[in-house]
Amino acid sequence: MDVLDSKSATVLSFFSGMDEMLNLIGRAMKNRTPHLNGETFLTGKEVCRMLNVSARTLQKWRNNRIMPFIRLKGKILYRHSDIIGCMENRVV
User: Fold this and answer.
1) Residue 34 neighbours by CB under 8 Å, 6+ apart
2) CA–centroid distance for 92 within its chain
3) Is 78 in contact with 92 (CB distance < 8 Å)?
4) Are 21 and 62 a contacting pair, CB within 8 Å?
5) Are 30 and 66 a contacting pair, CB within 8 Å?
6) Which of 5, 73, 86, 87 has the most other CB atoms within 10 Å of its CB?
7) Dihedral of alpha carbons 56, 62, 67, 70, sign
8) CATH number of 37-88: 1.10.3470, 3.30.70, 1.10.150, 1.10.10?
C-alpha cells in the first residue's frame, strides 16, 4: 500500500486535471450567452412562494391584469423583472 502525499505522482496528476477542468469551465462561462436575453421566468408556484400569496390570488391578479404574464405552449410564466417591477411600484 502506497502512502499519498502532496508530491505523489497520483496527487499531482489529480490536481493538474482539476486545474485543466477549472480553466475549461472558466472559458465556457466567459463565452456563454444567457438564454432568453438573461431574463428569468418563474412558474405560478414559484411566484406564489416568492410573494407569499395563494394560487387563487395570483390568478385574480392575472385576470385583473395586475400581474403581467406570458402564455407559452399552454403554460403560464412570469418574468422575474415584471414581478420585481410590480413590487417596486406597489401594484401587488
Assistant:
1) none
2) 23
3) no
4) no
5) no
6) 86
7) positive
8) 1.10.10
Sign of the dihedral defined by the CA atoms of residues 81, 51, 43, 66, in that order: negative
Q: Supply the DSSP string of 1-49, one letter for each residue.
A: -PPP-TT-HHHHHHHHHHHHHHHHHHHHHHH---GGGG--EE-HHHHHH
C-alpha–C-alpha distance, residues 51 and 87, integer Å: 9
The x, y and z cell numbers of residue 52, run together, are 407569499
Per-residue pLDDT of the chain (92 residues; tens, 9 = 90+): 677 788 888 889 988 999 999 988 888 877 666 677 778 899 999 999 999 999 999 999 999 999 999 998 999 999 999 999 998 888 66
pTM of this prediction exceeds 0.85: no
CA distance 20 to 18: 5
